[in-house]
């Protein structure tokens, strides 16, 4: 191989290698929107133990906690027998914790008018919260939120999507102190 060809090969390799050495910013993907309240809950769920001069940080896994989704028939807000059994199973999981809160989020699908869907989501949320209270969950532990059709679980107007969006999400979280 002639000198010019060797020089060309070395030049190409040097160029390729210099491209590999360039630092690119790490690519990240946002997989969850974490609100300030959730960050506060995370901070509250951590505590430090001093054991033999060593600091150990323990994380309470409740931050994202147990969760159940109650799906409703169209224009219905009353709890069925199956809904109550589902909530009872959720509550039996909650009993293993001493410090917890329950967040109840009511939703509707996009069928109908927003003026009708908003009160329907509120009635669904209230039905679930009322049942939880009847099962001896302290009202102070329950936070209720109604989103109507504004936060669909599934986009689109397929029967599957409409059914998934008629729901109340019930989630166990840490108590913010």
What can you tell me about this protein's structure?
- The chain has 177 residues and is α+β, with helices and mostly antiparallel strands.
- The chain has a domain at 62-173: OmpA-like domain (60s Ribosomal Protein L30, Chain: A, 2-Layer Sandwich).
- Helix content is 40%, strand content 21%.
- The protein starts with a helix and ends with a strand.
- The model is unreliable at 22-33 and 45-63 (pLDDT under 50).
Summary keywords:
177 residues, 60s Ribosomal Protein L30, Chain: A, two-stranded antiparallel ribbon, 5 helices, 6 strands, OmpA-like
The CATH class of the domain at 62-173 turns out to be Alpha Beta
Oligomer: single chain
User: Major sheet: order of its strands?
Assistant: 3-6-4-5
SS elements, strand count = 6
Q: Gyration radius, to the nearest Å?
A: 26 Å
Shape: elongated
End-to-end distance:
76 Å
CATH architecture of the domain at 62-173: 2-Layer Sandwich
Strand content: 15-25%
CATH superfamily of the domain at 62-173: OmpA-like domain
Summed over residues and divided by their number, the pLDDT gives a mean of 79
Helical stretch count?
5
Spans with pLDDT under 50 lasting ≥5 residues? 22-33, 45-63
Main β-sheet description? 4 strands, mixed
Helix content: 25-40%
CATH topology of the domain at 62-173: 60s Ribosomal Protein L30, Chain: A
Reading the helices and strands in chain order gives HHEEEHEHEHE
Structural class: alpha+beta
